[in-house]
Design brief:
With 257 residues, this protein is α/β, with parallel strands linked by helices. The chain has nine helices and ten strands. Helix content is 47%, strand content 16%. Helix 1 links the parallel strand 2 and strand 3. 36% of the residues are buried.
C-alpha cells in the first residue's frame, strides 16, 4: 500500500515509518489519517520484526499539527482528532513488535508525542524537543500527558508542559526523554543496527517483555505481577524456551520459531 505523506521503507528485518510532508512535517488531516493504516501495514508484514518511527525530511522529525487544522474545527472535529490520536497512541503501545524512534531535528507537539509511546528513543545531537500546546491554550492530545508522566516523571512532565519551551537533545537526555544521543549522520545506522540486534531475539519473548513493561507498568504493582505471571507461564510452554535452554547448555546459537 502506498501513502502520500508516510514513507514505508523495509531494510532487512527493520521497517521504517517516515513522516514525509516537507518542509516541516506539519500534520494535517490527510497526513493524520495515514498514520494508523501505515503502522498497520508494517505490523502485518511477517518479515518486519522491528518498527522505527522516523522522518524522510532531514532536520525535521515533525513540527506537530498544522495549526490551520484547528481553525474553526468545532466540537465534532476536535472529538474526531482526539479519538484518532488516542487510537494511534494505543496502536503504538500495544504493538507486539518492538517500536523505536529515530529523532532527527525538530520534534515538537504531536511529533514528539509519537515517540513517547515507543520503547526506546534515539536522537541526533541536533534534535530539539518541546510540547508547546500550553501556548495555544491546549494539551498534547496524542496521549502526550500520559506518555510524558510515565516516561519522565511528574516533575519533568510539569516542566515540559507548563513551560511550552523548546529544549535541546542534551536536556532531553538528562530528563530521560531520550535514551541514546547519536551523531546526526550516524543516527539511522545506529538505529538500524539496534533493530537488527533485536531481530535476533525470539519475537514472542520481545512481545512478552513489551506487555510486562507497558501494560504491567501502567498498572498497580499486584496487577503488574499478574501480567508477568501470565506471560511467564505462556513463555514456559513455548518451544522457544526449551530451545533457549537447550542451545545454551549445548553452547550453540538458538534456532527460534
Amino acid at each position: 500500500m502506498d501513502f502520500e505523506f508516510i514513507n514505508l521503507d523495509v531494510r532487512g528485518p527493520v521497517g521504517w515509518f517516515r513522516f514525509n510532508r516537507p518542509p516541516r512535517n506539519a500534520v494535517h488531516w490527510e497526513m493524520f489519517h495515514e498514520f494508523y493504516p501505515a503502522l498497520e501495514a508494517l505490523q502485518q508484514r511477517p518479515d518486519v520484526r522491528v518498527i522505527v518511527i522516523a522522518t524522510a525530511v532531514p532536520g525535521h522529525f515533525s513540527a506537530g499539527a498544522d495549526l490551520s487544522v484547528f481553525q474553526n474545527i468545532g466540537k465534532e472535529g476536535m472529538r474526531d482528532w482526539v479519538v484518532n490520536s488516542h487510537r494511534l497512541a494505543r496502536a503504538v503501545r500495544e504493538s507486539e513488535k518492538p517500536v523505536l524512534a529515530a529523532i532527527d531535528g525538530i520534534a515538537v507537539g504531536g511529533g514528539l508525542e509519537m515517540t513517547l509511546h515507543a520503547d526506546l528513543r534515539f536522537a541526533g545531537s541536533n534534535a530539539r524537543f518541546g510540547q508547546p500546546e500550553v501556548n495555544i491554550g491546549f494539551v498534547p492530545p496524542l496521549g502526550g500527558t500520559q506518555g510524558l508522566v510515565r516516561l519522565v516523571g511528574r516533575s519533568n512532565a510539569f516542566r515540559i508542559l507548563y513551560g511550552g519551551d523548546i529544549f535541546s537533545a542534551d536536556v532531553a537526555l538528562q530528563m530521560g526523554l531520550v535514551d541514546f544521543l547519536c551523531e546526526p549522520d550516524g543516527l539511522e545506522s545506529d538505529v538500524q543496527a539496534y533493530g537488527e540486534m533485536l531481530a535476533t531475539k525470539p519475537a514472542n519473548t520481545l512481545a512478552a517483555i513489551r506487555r510486562c513493561l507497558i501494560e504491567g507498568g501502567d498498572s498497580p504493582f499486584d496487577d503488574g505481577l499478574a501480567v508477568e505471571a501470565g506471560v511467564a507461564n505462556a513463555l514456559g510452554a513455548h518451544p522457544n524456551f526449551e530451545e533457549g535452554v537447550t542451545s545454551f547448555l549445548e553452547k550453540r546459537k538458538p534456532n527460534w520459531v
